[in-house]
Write a structure and sequence with these properties.
The protein is an alpha+beta fold and 120 residues long. The protein has a single domain, classed as Cation efflux protein, cytoplasmic domain (Alpha-Beta Plaits, 2-Layer Sandwich), CATH 3.30.70.1350. Helix content is 32%, strand content 29%. Strands 3, 4, 5 and 6 form a 4-stranded mixed β-sheet that branches. It has a two-stranded antiparallel ribbon with strand order 1-2. Helix 3 links the parallel strand 5 and strand 6. Helix 1 packs across helix 3. The protein is elongated, with a radius of gyration of 14 Å.
């Protein structure tokens, strides 16, 4: 589950003969990620995240030529939380949510910790 994948060309999200709107899978990934204790938010990486006025999602979904689903999710975590544990928990939560709600197993779930949120 924690394999690294080089960038691949993405096709439409057709999984096991069912067409799914990317927004549906993104919502599943965001909700699963935000349910993990210590995750402050799903974030949009880079300049796009700084410039965005809308809550653009930091989720990328890709189905490669072999039909394997790769998920990347960018998060901000709460200060003082164990980063490795949070990343592993996000991987597990996303994988299990996709299987239970769509019947699709993600080949990879890559978690990028883009920031730390400090208490106010």
């Amino acid at each position: 589950m924690a394999k690294t994948r080089e960038n691949t060309a993405c096709s439409e999200l057709r999984l096991e003969g069912v067409d799914l709107a990317p927004g549906v899978l993104e919502t599943i990934v965001v909700l699963a990620t935000e349910s993990v204790e210590g995750v402050a938010a799903v974030t949009t990486p880079g300049l796009a995240g700084l410039m965005s006025k809308q809550g653009a999602k930091g989720v990328e979904l890709c189905v490669d030529e072999a039909g394997l689903l790769a998920v990347s999710v960018h998060v901000s975590v709460e200060y003082g939380q164990p980063l490795r544990h949070i990343a592993e928990s996000v991987q597990t939560a996303v994988y299990e949510a996709l299987v239970s709600q769509t019947g699709t197993k993600a080949d990879t779930v890559d978690v990028f910790i883009d920031g730390i949120t400090f208490p106010a």
